[in-house]
């Protein structure tokens, strides 16, 4: 089931499977969200919980040695959500743990995703609630991919990712098994705020910005000013990714944590950025996307 929300200046569409965003259009009908193509990447904007990225061997422990076994990005992106509310300019989706999720992530939880549109801005809010009797370690992430280029006659290389602040970004290297090699890094930004896009940056995988001062980026064409701004005040990490095969999209991915790193063990509580939620407590994380 798909749900549409609208403002006077834009519209968005969300499907109940995975509570995944499937469309963001401006008032003129320009589609900003990648529409998926199996030749490059069939996804569009998966929701990541209770991990972001990969676990070593797809396994980890939590709490008092409880076993976790999860594929990349966790469990909810492959679950059917219930639509709790649709007000016309916002929609709230919810999913609960079940017998299958507890075999992979041994906690009872509720996870809500709320989309709110106002003028040309769309906010995604993720709320995790611990329904278990023990503290719950978890991570949350967004994975929206945007068309790049946006318009006919432009090229991928016409666009840049521009950070709100000048950064010294010495990014860790993703490994072939989807983990993070923090001992080997590539200097992406040296007291600069502009990352020019080129497919060669993604020939081995994504760029992981793990030491950012910025909490806002723009992916846009400096010649036209058109593109997307992403604000992520609640997230410490940002992943920028496009397909190795040269797809015409850029994913701007705020995460609260990253894949298991080369200097970490396999306990969720020991991973960078882990959040620990007490029983019956909730925590919300928001991303705002603004059409430029």
What is the strand and helix layout of this fold?
Elements (H helix, E strand, L loop, with lengths): L1 E5 L3 E6 L4 E7 L20 E2 L10 E4 L3 E4 L12 E5 L3 E7 L2 H6 L4 E10 L2 E10 L5 E3 L2 E2 L2 E3 L12 E15 L5 E17 L10 E3 L6 E5 L6 E5 L5 E5 L7 E7 L19 E3 L4 E10 L1
Antiparallel strand pairs: 1-2, 2-3, 4-12, 5-6, 7-8, 8-9, 9-10, 10-22, 11-21, 13-20, 14-15, 14-17, 16-19, 17-18, 18-22, 19-20
Estimate nothing, just give the exact number of structural domains: 1
CATH architecture: Distorted Sandwich
Strand order of the largest sheet: 7-8-9-10-22-18-17-14-15
- Uncertain stretches of 5 or more adjacent residues: none
- Structural class comes to mainly beta
One letter per element, helices H and strands E, the order comes to EEEEEEEEHEEEEEEEEEEEEEE
Helix content: under 10%
Polypeptide structure, described:
- The protein is mainly β and 292 residues long.
- It has one domain: Beta-galactosidase, Chain A, domain 5 (Distorted Sandwich), CATH 2.70.98.10.
- It is 2% helix and 47% strand.
- The chain has 1 helix and 22 strands.
- The strands form 6 sheets. It has a 9-stranded antiparallel β-sheet, with no helix packed on it. Strands 13-20-19-16 form a 4-stranded antiparallel β-sheet, with no helix packed on it. Strands 1-2-3 form a 3-stranded antiparallel β-sheet, with no helix packed on it.
- The model has no long low-confidence stretch (mean pLDDT 97).
